[in-house]
Amino acid sequence: MLIDAFSEAVILIGSADPDLFEIMLLSIEVSLTALLISVLLALPLGTLLAISQFPGKRIVITCLNSLMAMPPVVIGLLVYLMLSRSGPLGVLGLLYTPTAMVIAQVLLITPIIASLAHQTMEDLHLEYSELFQSLRVAKMRAIPVYLWDARYSLVTAVLAGFGRAVSEVGAVIIVGGNIDHLTRVMTTAIALETAKGELALALALGIILVTMALIVNAAVMLVRTFAQRNAYV
Amino acid sequence: MFNPQPLASNLNEPVLAVRSLRLTLSGQELLRGLDLNCYEPGVTLMMGANGAGKSLFLRSLHGLLPAEGVIEFAGRSLREAQGEQAMVFQKPTLLRRTVEQNMQFAAPEGTSTAQINALLREVHLSEKAKQPARRLSGGEQQRLALARALLTQPRILLLDEPTASLDPGSVLIIERLIQQASAAGVKVIFVSHDIGQAKRLASDVVFLHQGKITEHSPAENFFKQPASVEAQAYLAGELLV
Known about the structure:
The complex is a heterodimer of chains A (about 230) and B (about 240). With about 230 residues, chain A is mostly helical. Chain A has helices at about 1-15, 20-50, 55-70, 70-85, 100-135, 140-150, 150-165, 170-175, 185-195, 200-230. In chain A, about 35% of the residues are buried. The mean pLDDT of chain A is about 95. In chain B, the strands form two sheets. In chain B, strands 6-7-8-3-9-10 form a six-stranded mixed beta sheet, sandwiched between helices. In chain B, α4 packs across α5 and α5 (about 140-150) packs parallel to α6. The chains are: A mainly alpha (about 230), B alpha/beta (about 240).
């Protein structure tokens, strides 16, 4: 049975099955959108936390690190409560749309990227702070320098965020509803098809997910190798 | 290449004046009421055993440490003179960029590419301009750090053991640049352990021991006839504790 399912999965991928590719493209679209928004929020946040001193900084960092471990279903539930008809943002009518899934993924991966960026930036700040003081580099000018000089380490953080977003199931199934041709993404489709016993589609999606994970990891490795060779990390 | 304005217009005014300088970190008094007047524009060398407080003193002069007391450069406060200072650290901090980009980062507005190239030539790094700066050897990195500091056209150059553990070729290039800068009117304050180097470069020597200045005299006098017991012991090669 497994071999048959696997053969069918390969055929589905090889024949560019429209349903399969629709699900795959929606997954990538949702996760990339969430990633873009998260990067814009998380990188400046992580940098500011690393180079600024303010009362309660340790508490903010602890909260950020704790949010990394927040269960996705809890994030899904919170977004659901916000977007449901009786919730504060219910009037927007976003529940069970790809936008709701993007919001859930942003909440899920922003703390991860921000926390990893913060650790990278803190190390860099330790190294650069005296030089910047000596050259009288203002904080606002320092931030883009930190972001640029840490670019290779940050790529790793960003790709980790993408990997987390694209493989997420708990939150997106709550706020997206796994609606065919609307909010069905790879992970939710795998869960549904497995429950239905339709292993071929589930396996095909699983193969694509694993392939994507391999590509992401290979990209991280290539970036790190290049950066190490040039002493950019 | 160097064209700084003279630091002091009045010869009776010290180029560097320090009064009652104290530095306490983590409850420990590390600089204990330093007083110093430097009238000579040349190279002031700070000497002393490890832990004497030389680097802390230098960092305080650059405003990197919260020292108490008065620091004046040609009658102006440290805050006023900070923009005219440049410092080279013992371990050079280079950006994760190319040699050329490291120079461009420190370049004041209006600096031309020709000025950057001229300084890179001076430190024998022209051919490595496009290379990642952190791939350079230790000596090359320190030469780049010095070139970057000089690019800011400082009137006061603070150097914290910039030639420690470097190859003789790099030491020669760095010493030549320091002499050129000094001859052009830049006030150089230099921390070094190297007695030979001190003899080659110093116009006056400040000797520190356990967070205090025990002697400040012209270099010639210092090496011929050191006045303090600590300096005599140091020059004799004895261990100072």
